[in-house]
Amino acid sequence: MAKALFDKYGGFKSVSRIVMAFYEKVLDSDEIGDFFDNVDMPSLIDHQTKFIASLLGGPVSYSDERIKKAHASLDLTHEDFDEVGRLLKETLTEQGIEPQDIDTVMREIESRRTSILSVGTP
Amino acid sequence: MSITAISQQLLRAIGVGIAVLRGDDLHFLFWNEPFSEWFGKPDSGSSLPDVLRDVDMEEIRAALQQNGRYTGELSVKVKRRTLVIALSIAPANADVQDLYVAECQNITRIRELESMIDSYSSMVERNTRDLEREKERVERLLLNLMPRSVYEEFKTFGVVTPQLYESVSVVMLDFVGFTRFASEHDPTVTLGELNDIFTAFDRIAEQFGCERIKTIGDAYLAVAGMPEPSPDHARAVANCAVRFVRYLERRNQSHQHKWEARIGLGTGSAVGSVVGIQKYVYDVFGSAVNLAARLQAFASPMCVVAPGTMEEFLADEFHLTDLGKQDIRSFGELRLMRVSPGTELARKARQF
C-alpha cells in the first residue's frame, strides 16, 4: 500500500475529517450502531484514527493479530462487515477521495475481512 | 411581541442548552429545546438534581455560595452517543440570588477531536522513536564502514574529501596457507574461523589505538595515526602486530585449526577517503600501505617485519632483530628488522 494516499490527501488533516465523518455515520447506523453502545468515545476514536491512518498508509500499521483481538468478542457477521464497508465508502466519497483511491482502500479493507470477522472465507 | 416573548423565543432558538432555576430550591422554571434534548424534559416541580442525576449537588451549592457560580462537566448518553456537556450555573442577577441560569454547551466534538489528536500524536511519537532507532542503526552501520571523524564529515558535508596524512603506520597481516585451507574446508568453516580471529584482532587493534580499515579475504589491514593523528603510530602498529602473533599462538594451542600469519609493518604517508558512491568503502592508499603489504609477503610465518626507519620508535619497547638489507619491489633496497615482544611483554606473556 502506497504511503502516497496518506500524503496525497494532506496527511492528518484528511484523516481527521474522515475519522470524524465516519465516526458519526457508524454511530448513527441502525444496522451496526449497536455494537458501539458500550464503547467509550476515546477508545473508539483512537481505534478509528489508527485504522483510517493505516488504511491510507499513514504512520501506523495494524497487525492482523491486533485487528482480530479488537473484534473477536463482537460476533460480527458478513452483513455487519459489508455495512461498515459501505459507510466507509460513503464517507470517503463525501470527503472527496478519488474513486480509484477509494477502490484501493476498499481492497485493503476486504483483505482484512477474515481477521475482522474471525472466520474463514465466506 | 412583548419583550419577554422575544427573550423566550431567543432562548429557545440558540444551540446552547439553557435552563432557568429558582434560587432557593433550584426548581426548573424554564428550559429550552437543546436542554431537553440532552437531559429530557424536566417534569413540573422537578429540581436540578432530579434531571442532572450525575451532578454533585453539594459541590454545586458550595461553589455557588463561595464563588457565586459553578462550572463543571458532565456526560450524558443520547442514543448511543456519549455527549460531553460543559455546565455553568450562575445567578441571573448578581445581587439578588433568586434566579439561576444553567448554561450547557455541547463540547463533545472538542473532546472527540482531543482524543483523536492524542491518538494520532501517540502514533507519530511511536513512529519518531522507530525512525530514531533506525537512524542509530544506520549510523552504527556506517561507523563500521568508516572511522567516526570521517563519518562526521560525511554527515555534515555529504562527501568525504581525500585527506593526506604525512605520517602514519600500517599493519598488514595475511595467513599462511589460507587458499589451501579454504579449498579443503566448507566455506562456513573458513568464514567462522576468519570471523573469530578478526574479531579478536579488532579488539586488539582498538585497544592499542589502531583502526581496522578492511579485510580482503584473509588479509587484515589496520592503521594508526589516521584519521586522528597520533605521535605513537609506529608503536601502536607494532604493539598490535606482536599481539596478533601471540593471540594466534595461544589460539592454536586449543583450536582444531592452526593458523600462521605473516605480518608486515609500514610507515610513511597515506591518503584516506571514502571510495564509491553507492557502496561506501573507506580506504587508505599510499606508500605506508604498499610497504606493509610488501613486508608482509616477505615475512616468515608468525614473524613481524618492519622497515629500519621504524627502529627509533620501537627500540625501547620491542626486541628488534636486524634482517639486513633486502631488495623490496618498488622500494629498492631497504634495511629490514624483525619485531618481537620486548622483555617486559615477553615476561607478562609467560604469566598467562
UniProtKB/TrEMBL annotation, chain A:
Keyword tags: Heme, Iron, Metal-binding, Transport
Annotated residues for binding of heme: 47, 71
CDD domains: TrHb1_N (cd00454)
Pfam families referenced in this protein's UniProt entry, alphabetically: Bac_globin
Transmembrane segments: none
GO molecular function per UniProt: heme binding; metal ion binding; oxygen binding
Keyword Iron among UniProt keywords: yes
UniProt protein name: Hemoglobin
Originating species: Roseibium marinum
UniProtKB/TrEMBL annotation, chain B:
Top-rank taxon, per record: Bacteria
Gene Ontology terms: biological process: cGMP-mediated signaling; response to oxygen levels
GO cellular component, one term: guanylate cyclase complex, soluble
GO molecular function: adenylate cyclase activity; guanylate cyclase activity
Residue ranges occupied by any Guanylate cyclase domain in the UniProt entry: 169-296
Name of the protein: Class 3 adenylate cyclase
Taxonomic source organism: Roseibium marinum
